[in-house]
Amino acid sequence: MSQGVLSVRNLIVAAMFAALVAIGGRIAIPLPPVPITLQTLFVMMAGSILGARWGAVSMSIFVLLAAFGAPVLAQGQGGLAALFGPTGGYILSWPVAAFLIGWFTEKRAPRLSVAYLTAVHVIFGVLLVYAAGVTWLSFVTGMGWNAAFAAGALPFIPGDLVKTAVAAIVALRVYRVYPMIRKATPVKSQKNQ
Amino acid sequence: MSAFQSPVLGQYIPTGSVLHRLDPRTKLLFVFGYMFVVFLAQDALAYLFLTVIAAGGVWLSRIPLPMIFRGLKPILWLIALTALLHLGFTKGGDLLLQWGPVTVYEEGVRQAGWMSLRFLLLVVMGTLLTLTTSPIDLTDGLERLLKPLEKLRVPAHELALMMSIALRFLPALWEETEKIIKAQQARGADFETGNLFQRAKSYIPVIIPLFVSAFRRAEELALAMEARCYRGGKGRTRIRQLQFAPRDWGMLVLLAGLTGVLLWLRLNT
């Protein structure tokens, strides 16, 4: 991170996104069977709005904050216990998810559509995250795969699929007014200028 | 939303104990070291050492037990669940109990006990770290611990700065969110009815202004930092210096000793 002026802004926006993900955990839509928080919505948007690199940075910051006991997880949880607890796999996979979402968003950058973004969100924001989360859950608790899937994925999937579309709509609108992602024009690294 | 009222503190409970006064770097190293060492333990003696250290930490921290218990509560039922699963499904050793389709084997009891204890120890140590150290101290400690890695282009200073910024803006952004929700409700926005998709969609008029506000704040902060000639961590001086005291070295020696003992027990039994 030696690009100076421009990176200060990106740095701050990425930090803001880490805070926004924490806030997303507080906004709950009370729906049976499980209340849905907007946390993963912001995770997906961290990727599709900030792009691969800064999306990943921002989510790593979030994970570190959670590890340090700031009440940033859903329902105001935090701390190493929550992070390495049974549901930690989901959270630990967010940096990777944001990176991949950002990478595929950048690839198509000027010609983005809601459908394309939704697809990217579904693949990396839902499938990848659940694969990581359920594997972790079954590893930590010693539950079987089916039990872990039924407890850790099934009730949340409808809500998450809806969130992928909403995240795509919002990300596209934000991209139109405030494009954080620019077509990756390779900037030569300038050493000792 | 009361939990955000002191977001900088998080779970931190200041009691001014010895543990609170330890250098955050020491505590970070100790807890992370401990978490690896726990997995070396295989027999009762090793677990005894680990438990004594965790209990000693709890005692030294002078944090009331109910407070620690409160941090554990969300995890306890999972420990119980894990134990039950091991009791029910791990086979081996003598059959201890048979009741209808439920069978409990010796190996199952042992596994359940050790797994729960290991889990409990991990959780207690993690909780203890965040109860005795404020996130700002931890951020500082992390920056200093990662400093040597800056040669490998790990941006230690930037990471710590971003964590501080995120912590700083959490309450402001949350306040903003509540304000926006109320403003949209006053305009007739409906968050309570409709199906899943309609409800999720009704939050778009909240999220967009929230983004606008977050970006504006970021822009202002960036401008302010640049106006004050911020140019990264290089050559920056700080008002609060971390300093190792003898007790910090003591803790590190204790960690090294514990690792040695557990390694020895593992290799010799």
From TrEMBL, chain B:
Pfam family, any one: CbiQ
Subcellular location: Cell membrane
Name the record gives this protein: Energy-coupling factor transporter transmembrane protein EcfT
GO cellular component, one term: plasma membrane
Native species: Marinithermofilum abyssi
Superkingdom of source: Bacteria
Gene it is expressed from: ecfT
HAMAP family to which the protein is assigned, alphabetical: EcfT
UniProt similarity note: Belongs to the energy-coupling factor EcfT family.
Functional note: Transmembrane (T) component of an energy-coupling factor (ECF) ABC-transporter complex. Unlike classic ABC transporters this ECF transporter provides the energy necessary to transport a number of different substrates.
Membrane topology, as annotated: Multi-pass membrane protein
Keywords of the record: Cell membrane, Membrane, Transmembrane, Transmembrane helix, Transport
Subunit comment: Forms a stable energy-coupling factor (ECF) transporter complex composed of 2 membrane-embedded substrate-binding proteins (S component), 2 ATP-binding proteins (A component) and 2 transmembrane proteins (T component).
